[in-house]
Amino acid sequence: MGFIIAGAIIVVIGLFWIMNYNGLIKLRGWKEEAWSQIDVQLKRRYDLIPNLVDTAKTYMKHEKETLAEIVKMRNQIVSPDLSREEQVQADNELSGTLRQFFSLTEAYPDLKANETFSKVHEDLVATENKVAYSKQLYNKTVMQYNNKVESFPSNLIASVHNFRKHGYLEASNEERQAVRVDFD
Q1: Where do transmembrane segments lie in this chain (predicted)?
Q2: What are phi and psi of 115, to 5 degrees?
Q3: Which architecture characterizes domain 2-176 according to CATH?
Q4: Closest to 41 measured CA to CA, from 124, 141, 130, 121
Q5: Which among 23, 39, 56, 171 has the fewest CB atoms less than 10 Å away?
């Protein structure tokens, strides 16, 4: 009779362990999937930027530095040597430069009236919104994952199997500041 009770306890502990381990695996997979959604949207933005810059070049002859900076940052984001943190930092810098660029376009009515520019601008704004949403989803998923990693009793399983907390994506200092436009 004692063996049956001991066996039942071992089975219950084993099932408990398996369920918590699988829960951690599932959340880690969701976290990775959420990151890949960010990556997809960054790639979409990467593909849209040359069209926007090419259209703007003909109208914005005095803004060559801003356009060159956008292209430089665009190319930097897809560098295979960048870590996720460096990719996020480069993305934050590009977002700030794009906001400044869009503010500058206000001074060019012909550019704003250009159909190609308007279409690419709309697509880029929609993509920026998708990037923001993807970052929110990533942070939510990381929060759920981190809660599971830190909560008892799953924290015991997490420590044994080397599950570690992950950091959140945060707005950069540039993104927290208002865009300043100076036409002088």
Answers
A1: 6-25
A2: -65, -40
A3: Up-down Bundle (1.20)
A4: 130
A5: 171
Distance from C-alpha of 101 to C-alpha of 62, rounded to nearest angstrom = 12
- Domain definitions of the chain by residue range: 2-176
Asked if the peptide bond before residue 80 counts as cis, ω within 30 degrees of 0, the response is no
96-101, long-range: CB < 8 A, 24+ apart? 96/172, 96/174, 96/175, 96/179, 97/66, 97/69, 97/70, 97/73, 98/70, 98/124, 98/128, 99/179, 100/66, 100/179, 100/181, 101/56, 101/63, 101/66, 101/67, 101/70
Q: Which helix (H) or strand (E) holds 136?
A: helix 115-150
pLDDT for the residue 173:
61
| Spatial distance between the Cα atoms of 96 and 98, rounded to a whole number of angstroms | 5
**pTM reported for the whole predicted model:** 0.69
Q: Longest Cα pair distance anywhere in the chain, in angstroms?
A: 90
